[in-house]
Amino acid sequence: MDAAQQEATARARELQRNWYGEPLGALFRKLIDDLGLNQARLAAALGLSAPMLSQLMSGQRAKIGNPAVVQRVQLLQELAAQVADGSVSAAEATDRMDEIKKSQGGSVLNTTTTTSSSGAPTVKRVVREIQSLLRSVAAAGDIIDAADTLAPTHPELAEFLRVYGAGRTADAVAHYQSHQS
Prior knowledge:
Strand content: under 5%
Largest sheet: none
Distance between the termini: 55 Å
Structural class: mainly alpha
């Protein structure tokens, strides 16, 4: 790999860190390990071709262009956490992965997959949907720039953009909960 390719790969990984919280290679390897998948099965569950998954993992491509795929990544991350904490068995995880694979994305607040016992979407799920939507529209740096522009006249909107568009999920959950009546 020449210097220009190395620079492009480093830039792609930095963009991925801004958009997805970490480089996609690391994120996808965690999913592979946590869910007992190989790259081909992960690609199928996400609705990506194996070459596209490889390009995203290696930093040859920076962005997942399809919001439904981004949503499936988030659903698989949630599933991996549930497998890790023991609330979902391996057999259930396989069934859930099949459901995730079939999901088309769609509405911003898809309440059919992760809900609380009352049937309402979980706070974390709502927050992640908001984050995903904002991050599919613009990079974190651009969102921060927009927030800085809005701050003098609309500080609450600026804070919203910073917290949900470029912040950590835990901070966004706290913000969301503090603004509920």
